[in-house]
Structures are given as C-alpha cells and as structure tokens.
C-alpha cells in the first residue's frame, strides 16, 4: 500500500480522532487534510490495529509508516492519448488549448477522447513554470512575522475536557528568535494579548509586523489598499509598530514564520505529545522558546537565534511603552428605540436624540465608551460584569418617559428625599395611599425634575402643599406657569369652625318644643 506521506503528527491526530468516533467531515476541518486522505489512513490504521486498544505514539506510527508506506505513488498507467502525442505537440505549438485539441482529435479519429487525459498530457509537455524569487533580508529590529497554526488538542483546566487548540507564533525576522503561545481561539482579544506577551518576551517592539489576512488583524484584504482592524490599529499606535498585511494568497511573503515558526514549533515541540493541560504546556513552551529554540543553529543564518538577538537585535527594538496596551474592542452598533446599544450581551444607554443612528462602542477592560461617527464621546459606562446587565444614565432617556424606569417605592423615597422636604411630603402622600396603588403617580411627579430640575420641583411641591392641592396636575400647572418662583400668598379662608347661629330667638325654639310635646 503506497501513497503520499502526510506529516506524522497529522496522521497521529487523524488516528486519535478516528478512535473517538469523529466524522470524516469534522476531521477534514480540524486537521486540514482532504477526505480521501482521511479515508486512506482510516483503512491503514484499521490494518495496523490502531483503531482499537491503546493509542499508538507518534514514534510508533512513524515506524509503521516507514515499514508499510514507502512514500511513492503507484506506477502510472499509460495515457489513453499517448498514441496521439505527436499530434498534440503539433497542436500545442500552434497555441491550441486542451479543450480545442480534444475536439480536433475526436473529429479526426471518430471516437470520444477524454479531456482529462488530454489536459494531463498537455501539462506534462509544458510543466508549470517555477518562478525565481529574491530572498529579502531586513535590518535588525525592523520586522516581525506572526501567524496562527493548528496545534491539536489540549485539556482545558476549567472543564477537564479536551479542546481544539491553536499556536500563536511571532518570529523576529533578523535574528529568527521566536515566541509561541497556545490558545483556544483566534479572536481579536486573543490576538492582541498574544502580541503583548510576545513584546514583553522580547523586551521590545519591532518596527513593523507582517501578517496574513487574519480576521482578527485585517478588516479588508487587498493587494493594494488593505485595511487593518480598528482595534489592531489602536494597539499598533500604542506600541509604535506598523501593520503590514500580506496580499491575499501570498504565504511566501512571510516564510520565516510559516516554516521557521509555526511548522518548526509543530514538528519540534508539539509532535508526539498527548493532550496535556494547556497552562502547564504553555509554561513548557515558553521555556522551550527561550532555550531549545533559541540555542539551535538556524538553517539559513547558520547562527544561534539567541546570539544574534542578544548581540544585535535586542538593542535595535523599540522600547516598551510605560503601560501595556489597555485592550479595547471596537464594535459598530446602532442605538435602538429603548436608548440602549448592545455589546457582549449587555446593554448601555446613550442619548435618546441619537436613536437609529450608527455609533461605535469602544470597550476596555473596565469602561465602555459610546462614540459617534464624528468621534464625539457621548457616554462612558462601567463595563457590565454579567450578560443581560443594563448600564443606565437617566439623562440619556426621554424626560417624558423616564418615570417608567423608577420601579420601586424605596427608589421614589430616596429620590424625593434628595430633592427636599416638600417633594418628600407629596411623594409620601401617594406612596402611603390605600387601597389604590398610587406608585405610578409618585413616579410621574418625580419625572418632572427631568425637565424642570429638582429645585423647581421642590418649590412647586411646597406651593401645592401651601394651597392644599398637592396633586400631579396642580404641580405640573405650577411649573408650566412658572409660579414655583412666585411669593406665597395667604391661603384662602377656611370654613368657620364656631358653633351654630340661629336666626330666631331661643324662646321661640323652646315654645315650639313644648307645643310638640302636648
């Protein structure tokens, strides 16, 4: 059984996933091989008995592959159009394409001709041109290259279960000194945190960072005018490096991290390791980067990366800023009708005049800013600590509807007390009313402070109490007419409280009683 060899570490991962019942489709996504490769190694692993019993080590798989798979392709069969080779060569010299050659052969020979066979022969006649390239070397400290690579599975300490893992690698292009870190995602948060850790590992910042068109780093991929992700641009400004995205489909432009970084870490550190807790494996990886990887003799420079770094490149790096980058996430949002924007499953208020308009959220570790498209900061909130939490500034809400937010009697009492004794007396009158619930009326009275201000509301409540009309309609009229600032006139006269007065004389009243008694 002979077929092209896949890297042993990937074959080991395929076998491990097959034993766990993972589907071929999922293995293709996780490992990065095609389905035919998975099918071939499923058959091979079954023949070797690797789908049952103990999981073989990478070294054992390597030995069995060397014994059973020589790594060559089966002998090729003779092409069905080989007998027409001279004709095909003649047609090619005249500039005919494979499709036209096939039609011409069918017309001349009177039977169907395989297009695939013609195409393969044409390709063999004119092998693909191998472009020469110029190796570009950079000055010390001028450049670093970064990339993510698949790293198999590690154990998540939080759950005790295996998780798909990636390795982040940054390589300094001149010295080839590298930093690597295992992570569970390729989000912008992970991306920026890995940059921070790499710069701290090197003790400085390179002049520019070369990267692929990763979503965490590049918002718009382009060969001429790429656009970096907004948060990444902010991070680059803080540390002082330039962002240099590769043109699409140009992996050779960052070959130092492709081959000397991700593949080097995969082959020399990750290969043959069983799933291990990620935190302990990261500690080992940091030590490996600082010792084994740094002290090897590099195949291109013929020097040890640590020596080139310590002697020359360390001093050429830009110094680290006084404070690390306070990672901020930017997100385009729209202010909804309820005067809140949504970010990370929590809600933050913004001025109601901006309802329906596009805004930006800039979320740091402790605060969340809401910014207009004209770069005006319109709100600053403490960052929510749990999903579903609402961060509210009352001034952001429509004044006429804000009373609905005041939800409890205790809140009403606290707000009324802050405004004054008169407001407290009016509000307490409604809160203590029985049997009807007058909480909403108390809320509406307090909501008048949003437009009139707490001082005017206090004077209006005092005036309403003075005249014996401490109700919502009266207080609202006082404010509308501006009477809250007018001097208090004497209250209207009260009804008399003295004894009753009779029009007739008392003797007549007594005589009437005696006559009735007879």
What would you note in describing this structure?
It contains 20 helices and 14 strands. With 518 residues, the chain is α+β, with helices and mostly antiparallel strands. It has five domains: 8-68, no CATH class; 82-125; 143-316, 2-Layer Sandwich (Nucleotidyltransferase, domain 5); 329-395, no CATH class; 400-485, no CATH class. It is elongated and about 125 Å long.
Which helices and strands appear, and what pairs or packs with what?
Blueprint: H1 8-19, H2 24-31, H3 35-48, H4 58-68, H5 85-93, H6 98-109, H7 115-125, E1 143-156, E2 161-172, E3 178-183, H8 188-202, E4 208-211, E5 218-220, E6 227-228, H9 230-239, E7 242-245, H10 255-270, H11 278-290, H12 292-295, H13 305-316, E8 329-334, E9 340-343, E10 346-349, E11 358-363, E12 367-372, E13 377-382, E14 390-391, H14 409-419, H15 421-431, H16 439-447, H17 449-452, H18 454-466, H19 472-481, H20 506-517
Helix pairs in contact: 1-3, 5-7, 6-7, 14-15, 14-16, 15-16, 15-18, 18-19
Quick recap of the structure?
The chain is an alpha+beta fold and 518 residues long.
């Amino acid at each position: 059984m002979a077929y092209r060899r896949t890297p042993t570490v990937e074959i080991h991962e395929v076998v491990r996933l097959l034993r766990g019942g993972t589907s071929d489709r999922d293995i293709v996504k996780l490992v990065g091989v095609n389905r035919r490769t998975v099918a071939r190694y499923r058959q091979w692993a079954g023949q070797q008995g690797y789908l049952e019993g103990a999981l073989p080590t990478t070294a054992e798989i390597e030995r069995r592959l060397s014994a059973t798979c020589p790594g060559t392709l089966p002998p090729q069969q003779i092409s069905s159009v080989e007998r027409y080779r001279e004709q095909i060569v003649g047609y090619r010299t005249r500039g005919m394409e494979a499709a036209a050659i096939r039609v011409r052969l069918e017309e001349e020979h009177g039977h169907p001709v395989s297009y695939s066979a013609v195409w393969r022969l044409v390709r063999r006649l004119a092998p693909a041109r191998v472009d020469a390239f110029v190796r570009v070397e950079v000055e010390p400290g001028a450049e670093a290259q970064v990339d993510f690579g698949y790293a198999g599975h590690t154990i998540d300490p939080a759950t005790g279960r295996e998780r798909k893992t990636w390795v982040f690698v940054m390589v300094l292009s001149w010295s080839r000194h590298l930093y690597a870190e295992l992570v569970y995602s390729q989000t912008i948060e992970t991306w920026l945190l890995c940059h921070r850790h790499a710069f701290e590992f090197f003790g400085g910042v390179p002049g520019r960072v070369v990267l692929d068109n990763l979503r965490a780093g590049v918002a718009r991929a382009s060969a001429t005018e790429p656009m970096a992700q907004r948060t990444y641009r902010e991070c680059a400004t803080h540390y002082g490096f330039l962002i240099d995205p590769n043109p699409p489909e140009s992996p050779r432009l960052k070959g130092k991290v492709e081959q000397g970084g991700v593949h080097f870490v995969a082959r020399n550190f990750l290969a043959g390791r069983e799933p291990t807790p990620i935190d302990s494996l990261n500690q080992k990886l940091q030590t490996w980067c600082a010792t084994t990887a740094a002290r090897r003799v590099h195949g291109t420079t013929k020097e040890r990366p640590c020596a080139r770094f310590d002697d020359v490149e360390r001093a050429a790096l830009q110094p680290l800023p006084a404070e690390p980058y306070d990672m901020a996430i930017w997100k385009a949002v729209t202010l909804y009708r309820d005067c809140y924007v949504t970010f990370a499953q929590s809600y933050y208020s913004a001025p109601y005049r901006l309802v329906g308009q596009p805004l930006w959220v800039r979320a740091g570790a402790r605060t969340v800013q809401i910014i207009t498209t004209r770069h005006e900061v319109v709100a600053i909130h403490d960052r929510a600590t749990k999903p579903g939490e609402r961060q509210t500034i009352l001034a952001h809400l429509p004044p006429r509807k804000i009373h609905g937010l005041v939800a409890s009697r205790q809140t009403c009492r606290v707000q009324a007390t802050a405004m004054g004794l008169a407001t407290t007396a009016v509000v307490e009158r409604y809160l203590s009313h029985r049997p009807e619930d007058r909480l909403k009326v108390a809320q509406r009275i307090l909501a008048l402070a949003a437009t009139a201000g707490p001082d005017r509301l206090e004077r209006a409540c005092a005036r309403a109490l003075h005249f014996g009309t401490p109700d919502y309609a009266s207080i609202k009229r006082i404010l509308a007419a501006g009477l809250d600032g007018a001097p208090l006139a004497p209250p209207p006269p009260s009804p008399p409280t003295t004894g009753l007065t009779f029009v007739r004389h008392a003797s007549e009243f007594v005589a009437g009683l005696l006559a009735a008694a007879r």
